[in-house]
Amino acid sequence: MPSRVSPEREGLDAQRQEVAHALAGYLQKKKRKPASEIQIYADRIRSGEHDDFMRQISFALQDQSRLIMADLGGEPAEAQSPGITTLLLMHDANVQHKSAPSRQGQQRARQDPQTVLASLDQMVASQKEESFVTIPEPYLPCTASLESLEVIKLSHLTTETHHRGKSLFIERIGPLIETSILTLGAVKDVDGDAEAIEIYHADPHLADMLPPSTLFFLKEPFLTLGINGKSVIRVDHPTDVVDIDSLPKSLSSIASDQSATLTALEWKEIGNGYFTKQEYFKAGQAYQSALKAGAEDRLRLDVSRNLARVELALGKYEAARMSAIAAVSNDGSDPNLKALDVKAYFRAASASYQLRDWEQCEADLQKLLVLSPNDDDGVRLLGRVQARLSEQETESYDFLQLVKRLSRQQPRVDIADFTKRTLIGSSKGRGRGLYAAEDIKLGELILVEKAFVATFEWESTTSSTKVYDVRPKKFDGFPAALWQGIVQKMQHTAPQTVAEISRLTGRYSGLGSKTLRVDGSQVVDAFQIHDIIAANAFAIPSPAKTQKTEAFGVMKTILPAGADSAKAMNVPDNCALFQYASLVNHSCLPNATRMFIGDAMVLRATKGIAKGEEILHAYVLPSLGVTQRQMRTEAVWGFRCDCKLCEADTKESEEVRERRAAAEEEAGRLANDIVTHLADAAQRSNIIRQAERLYARLKGTFDPALYEGLPRGGTTPIQAALAQVYCLRGEQSRCKTMIVEAFDCLGWTLSLHKAGGEARDLLSSKASYQTRACEEMVGLLGTACRMLRENKKDRKLAEQVRELARTIYIALNSVDNGIGGIDAELDSSRKMASLPLR
Ligand SMILES: C[S@@+](CC[C@H](N)C(=O)[O-])C[C@H]1O[C@@H](n2cnc3c(N)ncnc32)[C@H](O)[C@@H]1O
Question: Residue with the nearest Cα to atom 14 of ligand 1?
Fold first, then answer.
């Protein structure tokens, strides 16, 4: 009997044809794909292979890829809308992920090198096209030593399997191709069996580390499917790759089998040759070989000293310090050796400086100066390290100089951290947090910290990479350059720093804060770093923008990655990870605000903080609506804020919120118009009355009992405009009342009665939500100052108000290069005062 096709089925088929046709048209037009590739996609759709996906593609064709994301079962990406090709690839990645368990344990087919190299070209083409990275289910890096692993061949590999307890001994064939954050290549084993390999976060010198025809080890290999659906060995943790030169001594016979046996002296000469050509990695390898070949006495000292120099150039500071110290002869009787010891100590001190171990650096230099008291380099470095020690102790930073020196070529600052005013403690329901170790006044420094790693968009093409994470099924941008930078740096960092970074919160805890050195390398869990970045990285504004800061165009304090309201899921241009400042928890009623100078974060108090109080800053803009705030903190950091403001905001009805939003919008517009219309006598009274009515309406939307002592956002612009108007009209009492009310709405009590004590005593905090409000506060104080200056008896108070504005300005900017703007503001108010108002 012929099968009957249901009407629904017929409809679906027709729809499929239509979508396939539209997709083909779309791809041809937008992506300029070769016709053959379009045909493949269209055929796949026609054959029903993408049946579920049909609907999603039709959404995409209507440019609604956000909905598709939600449909795929992941969180809707708010800003990153993947294109159709990406969606198809993502779909494939998802299907691959789901079907992985059914493939697990399947025997891998033997492949010859030519076939693998040909498919590598295909993989490279699709990677270049999409620059799209899939993050698989996390797995741990190998923590076993090479000696304890059983060597297997490629033919022993089975799919979707982490071969724990095993290692491969393989060699690279063909080129290594870097695309985005992964390096693609091909390898073969002693049987001539070949396989593709994907190495993530690879050492920048990977090609030198794994030269063709040189065998290397891959610990606990993982065989999976690549982006093209073909098998590939995936290496997520770079420490799973062990090159011949890093082999432990017990296995170094393998190395000598590979290279003709040279003497230590010959290796040293080879190293020096590479050094002259600035091929530092290869020079380092040669010096290592010299040491392994048994360099002794003077030769050992020379090789170690040269190796230290090379390691400094490669950023391997831990190793550099050890090599430098190993190069010290301590033989004061020989003037030649003494001079060489000076060099060795200088290299040790330079490494200590880079490791930010200021005390060690100073100690290394003291030893140097005993041998050569007037050594220029030594004396200069001692000056620098003493400046760092002073910053660390007494916060003696010259912020203005630091800002002036920033440029695109030099976006990083040379400063020490200042953390002694804070202590780490546990914060109920929030994990760890930072606490004030002493009383801290409004505007004062809480901490200064240089980023562990910071990346700037102009330095790398991978500052934001498209990533599909199979765990939350989330497609998003991710700061891949930062990820790679941290994974790399962790391998050459002091264990204590590694442990601190590893302790930072992240959804996947991986190796935890255990520090493990295996086979001479610091083991790093790349997935753990990924999740640490997701929960802790900060966006930083471009130093170029920072330099332009003037007057009230204050430096923007940018929120942590993914936290900005407008760009929601977009990855910021510049981002950084801070080891210590990451511990500051969130509140919509913060007591601290952050700003950045290059790669350093400066955190200041936005209200008086008593000893023992927790330091809190805002991860999301407190002025956003509560629903948006909570959605963001939940999506990015996995918590719901339970501060008093969130509590009050959530108790309000939707109707009240909508009413207020409408009044706020109108008030904002009117606040802008008001000054423009002041000169117009016909409009003036009318517009002022309108503003007063609107202000009363806006104020009326807040339930006084619910918001007792809490800030009421959105009122400031109209209050500031009215205060200016009253000031210009000479209505001092109304002006004063409006300014005091404006501060009250921002969560502050401002006293404008009489001068006395310190300027900051004029202000006391209830439960302010500042951060962005600082700008508005400075403006309001400008008006207050102008009003007070009119009366002779209030001149002293006026100066205190100006000083208070300055304190708040610095709390936000850290430098007072824009403080002249406050006076300029007063001048412009004076000009306005000449307008005929009455
Ligand atoms: C940047 S870390 C802050 C340090 C963190 N408390 C720790 O122990 O490492 C961000 C994480 O802290 C926690 N957190 C921060 N503020 C919070 C708050 N107001 N309520 C609950 N948890 C919070 C969340 O777990 C969030 O993912």
Answer: 430
